Amino acid sequence: MVLLRQLLGDVLRRLRVRQSRTLREVSTLARVSLGYLSEVERGQKEASSELLASICGALGVPLSQVLREVSDQFALAELQHAPVLAGDVPERERLPITETVVSGAIPDSVFPEVNDMVAA
């Protein structure tokens, strides 16, 4: 099972390395200890939303972008570990995929909270 904190750490490290920045530089700008930032990047510590915002600020990247990348990576990890046959998934855990594929839209029953937000 993939842990959210590991994927988050991977994304943060990738962004930092892509910018050719050191842990020390980012930790200073984010006002977080070097050791703690290192543990977050290695997926050993859970980062609070305030800490994530501070790290993202130091990297000059919106938190929403980081969370989007983490979400994409998480979705890929879930697909890699998903059962191959629908028969492997108990009926109560199945999503109405056929409706989605046929109509091209996600049924209201799958994500009712999204429909509430769109209607507001």
UniProtKB/TrEMBL annotation:
It holds the Pfam family HTH_31. Gene3D superfamilies: lambda repressor-like DNA-binding domains (1.10.260.40). InterPro entries: Cro/C1-type_HTH (IPR001387), Lambda_DNA-bd_dom_sf (IPR010982). It comes from the Bacteria. Residues 12-66 form the HTH cro/C1-type domain. This is Helix-turn-helix domain-containing protein.
